[in-house]
Amino acid sequence: GPGGLTRERAGFEVRDVHATHYGRVCPIETPEGPNIGLINSLSVYARTNDYGFLETPYRKVVNGQVTEEIEYLSAIEEGNYVIAQANSNLDENFRFTDTFVTARGEHGESGLYRPEDIHYMDISTQQVVSVAAALIP
To answer: Which residues are in the DNA-directed RNA polymerase beta subunit external domain (predicted)?
Structure first.
């Protein structure tokens, strides 16, 4: 709209992928050329909450055991938790099998965490991308 962002004035800060986009905005599906990073698609499982913020789903983890309970978190809420990747190794009881699990920490940094320190787990390895990007083998 009037006084808004134009292709010519949009810098790298606006176009770049940000950690808060994880599971909410697809980092792959954006046009090439002058509109790169300005036109985006929602990720597969993303939804908007009552306040208009994008949320993505996670499986709740209790004492190192992944539950069937799914909670949607906004980027603001997500920053308060340790979240394991969807491809983490689990046993038949949905407990982490590794001594340390790769996860995103409370400040968005990836690292190795003990299973009992993990709060949530991604629900799918495809939750990061859009429906169109998820169809690519």
So the answer is: 58-124
